[in-house]
Amino acid sequence: MEQIQENKMGIHPVGPLLISMALPAMFSMLIQALYNIVDSIFVAKVGEEALTAVSLAFPLQTMLIAVGVGTGVGLNSLISRRLGEKNQQAAESAAEHGILLGLISWAAFALFGVFFTQSFYRMFTDNPLVFQYSCDYTYVVLIFSFGAMMDMCLEKIIQGTGNMIYPMIIQLVGAVINIILDPIMIFGLLGCPAMGVRGAAIATVTGQIISMIVGLFLLLVKTKELHLSLKSFRFNRSTVGAIYAVGFPSIIMQSISAVLTVFLNGILIAFSDAAVSVLGVYFKLQSFVFMPVFGLTQGLMPILGYNYGARKKKRMMDAFRLSLWIALGIMVVGTVLFWIFPQQLLGMFSATEEMYRIGIPALRSISLCFAMAAVGIVVSNVFQAIGNGVYSLIISLLRQLILILPIAYLLSRLMGVTGVWYAFPIAEGVSMIASLVLFAVCYTAKIKPMPEPES
Fold it and tell me: For residue 37, what are the domain limits?
């Protein structure tokens, strides 16, 4: 029998290993954050109705990303744990199931796009131009979402082996193509017809499909840790269950932001349209702070999962502590920037005087939650890596729904629009305490009893 070599996640020094695995993901996440802002700037130039239409599509896109990323998180966790256990066949089976699950998820969203798009938007707008723009954009994004769904799963499968360079390449290819094609297809440059909002959607799915093709090549041809054989694939319900034991809570967590935005907009619209715009600008800006932390945890998760499977407690905890300090450092820098440069940050979005009046204190108040959020994000990653996705779900529900919405509503009644912004740090503070309590429970039950293997 061929001897299975020890994966780098089990032997390399933890510090350099974490940095080498996290940096590519952090870089690609920053590119994604940049793309989100650039895309909004281009669409806004079509007109206010176009920007409104794309904003109305945000919950559907968030759900699409939630299913793709959540499934991928389950794959990442399961593959890294099985590799840590030296169970090569189970790791490869999980990857094969991931490809099938990506296709099934795409089919569900494509069917929704065909049959329910118009009904969905009739609930939100009576403006015929906004309605038409929304449908034009959503038909393309959902029906051709196989590229997005597959490349998200492929990235996480490869990350589960400890390779962070290939997922970075996959993300960069899609983002760069998207950014290049956006102005060409929206405004009709280089001989391309001007397609407006539909052009933005076509640019998006084109980048995603090319990313998928690159991802398939890298997984099937270049990735040495997994050797997939789709011809001999056998469906296994227990493998799917193990994927979604972590993946389903992650899907719910990823979906929460869409629900949060809808309800916060409902609270803020009672004050002014500018207040809603400020919240939208905040979510664009905060991605530059949160995305690097999410990239860091993408590098952290396979290290935790592998060493949990290999029963290497010290390596797990060393990686956890280092990532927590790095995440806190990133968040502190973000808080400082939001406090010193709120006017300049808002100015990037052609802010009105009312937006400045509401937005400057908003950015400063909300940013107080950044460091506390870092703790919750990193600790939740530990829960996911060891297969306890329910704890991650609990923390995310507390952070982004259960606490923040009633607090925001209550404070808005007592303090006006300013009270909404204070809800963020209050909710994050309580959630941080809850995450530390759950971590202590999880550590005592699952991590502390692990014996260190013989050297």
Answer: 13-447
